[in-house]
Design a protein that fits this description.
The complex is a heterodimer. By secondary structure, chain A is of the alpha/beta class. Chain A has a single domain, classed as P-loop containing nucleotide triphosphate hydrolases (Rossmann fold). Chain A is 36% helix and 28% strand. Chain A contains eight helices and twelve strands. A six-stranded mixed sheet of chain A has the order 6-9-10-3-11-12, sandwiched between helices. In chain A, α2 crosses α3 and α5 packs parallel to α6. The longest helix of chain A has 15 residues. In chain A, 43% of the residues are buried. Chain B is α/β, with parallel strands linked by helices. Chain B has one domain. In chain B, the strands form four sheets. In chain B, strands 5-4-9-11-13-15-17-19-21-23 form a ten-stranded mixed sheet, covered by helices on one side. Chain B has a ten-stranded mixed sheet with strand order 6-7-8-10-12-14-16-18-20-22. In chain B, a hairpin with a 2-residue loop joins β4 and β5. The radius of gyration of chain B is 22 Å and the shape is globular. The N and C termini of chain B lie far apart (47 Å). The chains are: A alpha/beta, B alpha/beta. The interface between A and B is medium-sized, with 29 and 24 residues.
Chain lengths: 249, 469
């Protein structure tokens, strides 16, 4: 098993957001997490990635059997966890090439592999750019600086392609995307899918799931997973709306 | 007991020294300069040194610098093998070098060079003798000798420094590098003055370096006057890499005539106490200046950037961007004064100071000050001080980049907004390299030039060779 979350409680500034999450993700699976705004979807993603503004008060997260609470943000990333940000951060002055080369080589170092030679690295960048249909000269630009909403999300998928994570959590990657960008992002995910890795796709709408077909759909409401099912659950949610969930709880 | 040659630098002692050395100091002066010297000394006797009670010096405390005693040689002390010391190995940077040791022009045998295009570079002392008609109209005309104690003292005592003259219409493409080296077996007090004259439509790129070659305390009082005649363009770099026991008060007056342009870059990488006074006066319309600054300080280092831009003419634009990273107990001051005079219509003036404080004990005093006497102007200022952006830190670390490297990347990126403005590519690469080393705590004062920190793939050396200038 890749990820096992048991009775996870987390709070920010003393306010409890996650109130007992249980979730299991296996290699090769795609999980969708849906739910109304403000129910803790992004918090769950941040807590798995190790954002320190959230305090885990109860429960545990195991990643390939390792207790994530004992690992720093970067160690979790090097273990193979990738977070696709809902709002990717602009970092003026740091070129994407420099950023990715530092990241790739730090991850390799952690795993006891020699740094990637510059030539091979640049070749890899070119290949992965094609995967997300980036044609512009990305390499000279600063990370996300002046990028449109769609470009930022594409850049997230590009980074995912570069870092080849075992578990990718995509936090509302579809928000703010037009239909073409959505298709590009979804294609990227589908091409990167292997029997060894897994995806947790957080989304507010069912739309993305037309392109990325999930094996499981979970509904998060008020800090708990209140409903789980197959892909048909997403369609049911789309028809009935989140009021249906709210009424049941 | 202190050795006889070491003295506390007090107005009283300096007054006695002046009376005593008067003949020696004025020996080679043209009459006008001699008068100026007398006047400046009177002015200094009245003004003395600035202290914390003065508004412009409120946050820079010189008392520790004055507690030490210093040797103050009034004549050059040269070592025979000094030419060896002058090495600057910025790969692919081809410059004409004016070397100064402790404020004295180095190549005594060729003190002044007249180049094929009419350019004159070399020793100011020699220029006063040989070209008084070029020196007299400018020397001491821009520096405020009546209100600035340090400038007055400098005008009274300094007899040498660098002289650069670019005739009308000459576009000098090879940068001129002014290297000011401090190296002395004892504590040393240094005063030198520089005069740079750009004729009409003349162009110059000038790299002005202050370097320590040892760890001995020093106190320098430098005055530089730079004239840009109508339509002239100057790309100016001030690169400071002094040791932790150095005190430097460096004052530069830029006098900009009609349609002239100035790009100025202040790069403070190391130093004990650095005070940079920058005065820009727009003396004619349609002038333009960009002033950039970066300062990287740690330990108990202190840097104070005082910038006064005087919009005395209409239709001029000025823009300032100063950025600082302060670590440990370092402290900094940004004092930016923009004066827009009554007749300076359509002035465009902008000022920005941004600081990163890496510890709770690092301090910055940022004081933008706009003084505007005209309605038809666009003026703005901004100042921010903060820590590294936690969102950006999380983003970088989430990609597997360790905390230390993430900090380094963000700090470098912060500095790079200023460093990237360096137009001379080899210099920019070298400064980027030095900033990286500085941020990693690896930059040291080398035995020789600090620019010596070699890039193994480019082991190019630029020794001073006057025959090539």
């Amino acid at each position: 098993m890749l990820l096992k979350i048991t009775n996870l409680h987390a709070s920010i500034h003393g306010k409890e957001i996650l109130r007992g999450i249980n979730l299991e993700v296996n290699e090769g699976e795609i999980h969708a997490i849906m739910g109304p705004n403000g129910t803790g979807k992004s918090t769950l993603a941040s807590v798995i990635a190790g954002r320190d503004v959230f305090e885990v008060t109860e429960g545990e997260i195991l990643f390939r059997g390792k207790n994530l609470m004992e690992l720093s943000v970067e160690e979790r990333a090097r273990e193979g966890i990738f977070l696709g940000f809902q709002y990717p951060v602009e970092i003026p002055g740091v070129s994407i090439t420099n950023f990715m080369r530092t990241a790739v080589n730090e991850i390799r170092k952690y795993r006891g592999i020699d740094p990637l030679p510059a030539g091979e690295f640049l070749k890899m960048m070119e290949e992965r750019k094609k995967l997300v249909e980036i044609t512009s000269n990305l390499t000279n630009r600063s990370v996300n600086e002046g990028f449109s909403g769609g470009e930022k999300k594409r850049n997230e998928i590009f980074q995912m392609a570069m870092l080849e994570p075992t578990l990718a959590i995509l936090d509302e990657t579809d928000s703010g995307l037009d239909i073409d960008a959505l298709r590009v992002v979804a294609n990227g995910v589908n091409k990167l899918r292997t029997p060894e890795n897994a995806f947790v796709v957080i989304t507010h709408y069912q739309r993305l799931l037309d392109y990325i077909i999930p094996d499981f759909v979970h509904v998060l409401y008020e800090g708990r997973i209140v409903k789980s099912g197959g892909k048909e659950l997403a369609i049911e949610l789309e028809e009935k709306g989140y009021d249906w969930i709210k009424k049941e709880n | 007991m202190e050795p006889d040659n070491l003295h506390h630098i007090t107005p009283e002692w300096l007054g006695e020294l002046y009376d005593h050395s008067h003949f020696q100091l004025t020996a080679h002066d043209p009459p006008m300069i001699r008068q100026q010297r007398e006047k400046a000394m009177k002015s200094f006797s009245k003004l003395g040194f600035p202290d914390l009670k003065m508004e412009d010096w409120r946050n820079t405390d010189l008392s520790e610098s004055f507690e030490r005693s210093y040797d103050y040689p009034l004549q050059p002390v040269m070592e025979d093998d000094f030419q060896k010391v002058f090495r600057c190995n910025i790969p692919h940077l081809d410059t004409a070098v004016i070397g100064q040791l402790n404020g004295w022009f180095v190549s005594r045998d060729v003190p002044l060079m007249e180049l094929g295009n009419g350019m004159i570079i070399g020793s100011l002392a020699e220029a006063m003798k040989k070209y008084p008609h070029l020196v007299e109209p400018h020397l001491g005309r821009y520096a405020d000798l009546e209100h600035n104690g340090f400038a007055a003292l400098n005008a009274a005592f300094a007899t040498d420094g660098a002289f650069i003259y670019i005739p009308d219409g000459v576009k000098n493409e090879r940068p001129v590098q002014l290297v000011n080296v401090i190296q002395h077996p004892e504590n040393i007090f240094i005063q030198s003055r520089n005069l740079i004259i750009l004729g009409k439509e003349a162009q110059l790129t000038m790299v002005h370096c202050d370097d320590s070659y040892d760890h001995q305390p020093s106190f320098s009082n430098m005055v530089t006057e730079i004239v840009l005649s109508d339509g002239a363009f100057l790309d100016h770099y001030k690169l400071q890499n002094l040791n932790n026991d150095s005190t430097l008060v460096s004052s530069t007056w830029f006098h900009l005539e009609r349609e002239s342009r100035l790009e100025s870059h202040y790069l403070a990488l190391n130093g004990g106490l650095l005070r940079n006074n920058t005065y820009v006066r727009f003396n004619g319309p349609f002038g333009h200046t960009n002033i950039y600054g970066i300062y990287l300080m740690d330990r108990k280092q202190h840097v104070d950037n005082y910038i006064a831009v005087d919009h005395a003419s209409p239709d001029c634009t000025s823009s300032e961007l100063f950025k600082g990273i302060l670590d440990e107990q370092a402290s900094g001051v940004f004092n930016g004064h923009i004066l827009v005079r009554r007749d300076a219509c359509r002035t465009n003036a902008y000022q920005n100071n941004r600081n990163l404080l890496l510890t709770d004990t690092a301090r910055i005093n940022s004081k933008p000050f706009l003084e505007i006497y005209n309605d038809d102007v666009k003026c703005s200022h901004g100042s921010t001080t903060g820590q590294l952006d936690p969102d950006a830190m999380f983003y970088l670390r989430q990609r597997g980049i360790g905390e230390d490297n993430a900090r380094m990347l963000l700090m470098f990126a912060f500095a790079d907004e200023v460093v990237s403005k360096i137009a001379i590519e080899p210099l920019r690469f070298r400064i980027e390299d030095m900033v990286k080393k500085r941020l990693q705590g690896e930059l040291q004062i080398c035995e020789q030039c600090v620019l010596h920190c070699s890039t193994p793939e480019n082991p190019v050396e630029f020794k001073i060779d006057v025959s090539k200038i």
